[in-house]
């Protein structure tokens, strides 16, 4: 597949996806959404790829959200089943995805980051859900993810005012995992990804799936049902499930195979 609006690089088990429309601050339109749907379908289905990082081209923007100029000029708006950037409605991916936010993350751009499992932000990063200022609403997950991640009152404070939030404040509010110097977001995200990759990918997928499914039910139900989750069952049946304890007892690093 020829990529026009994104770039994909693989470093071992890590896939790096770069949103690449720097002329419009990496804002996305319909064609970009469908391209990214395929990119993340490929990542999800590749057994050799364990972790993904999403970042933006250039040093000014992660993603400015929906391409409003495209829309205002009559461009068709829409995306595939995975949602905005192929990510915001992708609920069946149990592999970790990290947002390396290297600048502006507005509207849909912020919603992409919120849909990731971790957010690493450079000092110049700015976050907002400014849709009300242009007569829209953050319906690609932002209105639902932000309250779940930072609490109702804090989220209301951001959403109803449409105000901009710095990386430092995002860390204080709890939706940013780490703030790094400008230009270092991708390197820091790679450091996180490499640390995650030291663990069994089967265990990581089981953990992510158990968290996601468990948050939708009571604590009692989550604990009772977790062993029936597909990724948990796959972990228990995997070679990694045998390799981990064996490597520990033999006092050597484990050799994960991801199956």
From TrEMBL:
Q: Which InterPro entries match?
A: ClpP/crotonase-like_dom_sf, Enoyl-CoA_hyd/isom_CS, Enoyl-CoA_hydra/iso, Enoyl-CoA_hydra_C
- Keyword tags: Lyase
Q: Which residues cross the membrane?
A: none
Classification via Gene3D superfamilies: 2-enoyl-CoA Hydratase, Chain A, domain 1, Lyase 2-enoyl-coa Hydratase, Chain A, domain 2
Pfam families, per this entry? ECH_1 (PF00378)
What family name appears in the similarity comment? Belongs to the enoyl-CoA hydratase/isomerase family.
> Mind telling me what this protein is named?
Enoyl-CoA hydratase/isomerase family protein
């Amino acid at each position: 597949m020829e990529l026009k609006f994104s770039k994909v690089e693989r470093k071992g088990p890590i896939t790096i996806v770069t949103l690449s429309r720097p002329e419009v601050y990496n804002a996305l339109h319909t064609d970009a959404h469908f391209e990214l749907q395929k990119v993340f379908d490929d990542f999800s289905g590749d057994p050799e790829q364990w972790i993904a990082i999403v970042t933006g081209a250039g040093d000014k923007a992660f993603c400015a959200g929906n391409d409003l100029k495209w829309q205002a000029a009559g461009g068709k708006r829409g995306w595939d089943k995975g949602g905005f950037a192929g990510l915001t409605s992708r609920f069946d991916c149990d592999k970790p995805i990290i947002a390396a936010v290297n600048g502006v993350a507005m509207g849909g751009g912020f919603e992409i980051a919120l849909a990731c499992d971790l957010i690493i932000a450079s000092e110049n990063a700015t976050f907002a859900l400014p849709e009300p200022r242009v007569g829209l609403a953050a319906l690609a997950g932002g209105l639902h993810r932000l309250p779940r991640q930072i609490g109702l009152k804090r989220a209301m404070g951001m959403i109803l005012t449409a105000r901009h939030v710095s990386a430092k404040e995002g860390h204080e509010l709890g939706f940013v995992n780490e703030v790094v110097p400008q230009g270092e977001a991708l390197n820091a995200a790679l450091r996180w990804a490499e640390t995650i990759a030291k663990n069994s990918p089967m265990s990581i997928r089981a953990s992510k799936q158990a968290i996601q499914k468990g948050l939708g039910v009571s604590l009692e139900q989550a604990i009772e049902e977790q062993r029936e989750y597909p990724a948990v069952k796959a972990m228990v049946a995997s070679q990694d499930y045998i390799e981990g304890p064996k490597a520990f007892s033999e006092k050597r690093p484990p050799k994960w195979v991801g199956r």
